[in-house]
Amino acid sequence: MSQNDYPIGERDAERIAVLHEMKILDSIEEGSFDEFTSMCAEIFDVKTVVISLVDTDRQWFKSHHGLDAHQTERKLAFCNYTVLGHEIFEVTDPINDPRFKDNALVTGNLGLRYYCGAPIVIKGMAIGALCLIDYKKRAPLDEKQRRILTGLAAVCTRDIQNRHLLKKTTSMMSSILKGMD
Amino acid sequence: MEHSPDAVDFDRLEIYGQRITDQNGSTVKVELLTRLPKDFDYPSIESFFGALTPQQTLEITKAQIQAGAEFYAKTGIEVSINVDNSVLVESELTEHLITFCERQTHPFTLEFTELKPMPPSSDINAIFFRLKQNGIKIALDDFGTGFNGMSTFADYDFDIIKLDRSLILGIQTRPQKLLILKHVLDLADALGKEHVVEGVETQDQLDTLNETGFRHYQGFLFNRPVPLKELL
């Protein structure tokens, strides 16, 4: 498989509609999300943790601890596989994995050697993933670690939903105020 | 229209400033405003701006960014500058604005109004993101005036909301209105957004707003807009 090919779920358009509804793409850095990814990096002892949101033709990072980029082309995203389902997706040997051995994140300067993503599921749609990334070979997560990562992804999901609800409520309050003139 | 805006000599437009203050009246920022020379034949500043092309409004914005750089160098106080929403409609102008902003080394705020429509947030948030990468803050001006039901705030990524004067009218006698206003403040705080209450005119209003927890103000109670050089 060449690196231009990635799987797209049957309901990808619906998935992207939910992502867009959250109004989080291209938002500024917010401390709470950055503290969260930094903490995840400590818990799992990995170099990089990102909150990746998989858009039509890119993945955009709400937070990117230990990585400079704030987005990549979608075709490079390991998360394309994670958002197909509602379970953890883990890659421990990308060099020998036909799906990733030609991926520029693996073959290029970054030298990605480990990926583990837990999907961020809103309204039944995986809009992105909380991802652990490292640049050396790692053993797969054990059962307990998988449960912790799943739980942290759920916390992150609620953060994204609450952020959106607070913004919507603020707007609604202002229109109520306007009506009170 | 007696004057064609094309004939306007932009150098003759006067830059005014109005202070944004904290609860103690200390200046936290200065909003830059444009005043017309007396011999300009426009009934109002609004009619003048209404006659301008998007390109011309951008030129005014750029002149203010430059004036803001000078002001910041002398005072250490940041300025807030209005950008006409039409600049966001034409991608060429938007790129021009971003490139111009990227060349600046001083911090400042750009204000966009809720009174006029804005292109879809999917396009605009990416533009705001690029501006913010350069240390620029984005403010939503006239918050509470959006007439399509909901405020622009839900969809777009602003750092600062500037509450319109209409929101604070009568708050001293209307506890329910004040309660909702307080809730707006709590929401903004929870989202990590800054605020400015505009149109504060009386000490009574200010006392009520302070008790409610508001912290930043702009209005005639503190000062009227004056030529920027008087604020140096």
Q: What structural keywords apply?
A:
heterodimer, A: 181 residues, alpha+beta, Beta-Lactamase, 6-stranded antiparallel sheet, 5 helices, 6 strands, globular, B: 232 residues, alpha/beta, TIM Barrel, 9-stranded mixed sheet, 9 strands, 34% helix, 20% strand
Which helices and strands, and how do they pair?
The complex is a heterodimer of chains A (181) and B (232).
Chain A: H1 12-21, H2 31-44, E1 48-54, E2 58-65, E3 71-73, H3 79-82, E4 89-91, H4 104-107, E5 114-122, E6 125-134, H5 143-179
Antiparallel strand pairs in A: 1-2, 1-6, 2-3, 4-5, 5-6
Chain B: E1 14-21, E2 27-35, H1 45-50, H2 54-75, E3 79-82, H3 91-102, E4 109-113, H4 121-133, E5 137-143, E6 160-163, H5 175-190, E7 194-198, H6 203-212, E8 217-218, E9 226-227
Parallel strand pairs in B: 2-3, 3-4, 4-5, 5-6, 6-7, 7-8
Antiparallel strand pairs in B: 1-2, 1-9
- Lateral strand order in the biggest sheet of chain A: 3-2-1-6-5-4
Q: List the uncertain runs of chain A.
A: none
Query: What is the CATH C level class of chain B, in words?
Result: Alpha Beta
Topology-level CATH name of chain A: Beta-Lactamase
CATH superfamily of chain B: EAL domain
Main beta sheet of chain B: strand number and arrangement? 9 strands, mixed
Just name the CATH architecture of chain A: 2-Layer Sandwich
| Average pLDDT over all residues of chain A | 95
Q: Tell me the number of structural domains of chain B.
A: 1
- What proportion of the residues of chain B form beta strands (DSSP E)? 15-25%
The poorly predicted ranges of chain B are: none
Number of helices, where a helix is a run of at least 4 consecutive DSSP H or I residues of chain A: 5
Fourth-tier CATH superfamily name of chain A:
GAF domain
**Quick one: which chains have the greatest interface?**
A-B, 25 and 37 residues
The description of the largest β-sheet of chain A is:
6 strands, antiparallel
Approximately how much beta-strand content do the residues of chain A carry?
15-25%
What is the count of structural domains of chain A? 1
The number of strands of chain B is 9
Reading the helices and strands of chain B in chain order gives EEHHEHEHEEHEHEE
Instruction: Report helical residue fraction of chain B.
Output: 25-40%
